[in-house]
Write a structure and sequence with these properties.
Elements lengths: L1 H4 L2 H20 L1 H53 L7 H24 L1
Helix pairs in contact: 2-3
Length: 113
């Protein structure tokens, strides 16, 4: 999970969502009250679940470690094959706009000639 969260694309997308969420809560008092209630509910459920799940996680720890190592290797390979994952969302959007503009310009030129 940490490795995925540290990927540039994922972390920049999370930052964008977090900023939008905070801005929305700040701008809309009714949304803020609903979000605050939802956050408290999630926090309570998480705390209650953590104490119940901990004994199971302790028992499964060797298996979780093996799965984690396997997943880590797979993510490394995925990162090699998809360099896009190492770019921030803003750059991907900018690159996409540039590519689309270029293609549209090429199409215009082809039609006008």
């Amino acid at each position: 999970v940490n490795q995925v969260a540290n990927m540039t694309l994922v972390s920049s997308a999370c930052d964008m969502v977090s900023t939008a969420y905070a801005s929305t809560k700040e701008s809309h008092p009714y949304v803020r009250s609903v979000c605050d209630a939802a956050e408290k509910g999630v926090k309570s459920v998480t705390e209650a679940t953590a104490s119940c799940v901990q004994p199971v996680l302790t028992t499964l720890e060797p298996h979780v470690a093996a799965a984690s190592e396997y997943a880590s290797k797979g993510l490394d390979k995925l990162g090699e094959k998809l360099p896009l994952l190492q770019k921030p969302v803003e750059q991907i959007i900018s690159d996409t706009k540039e590519l689309v503009s270029s293609r549209v310009a090429d199409a215009k030129d082809a039609v006008s000639s």
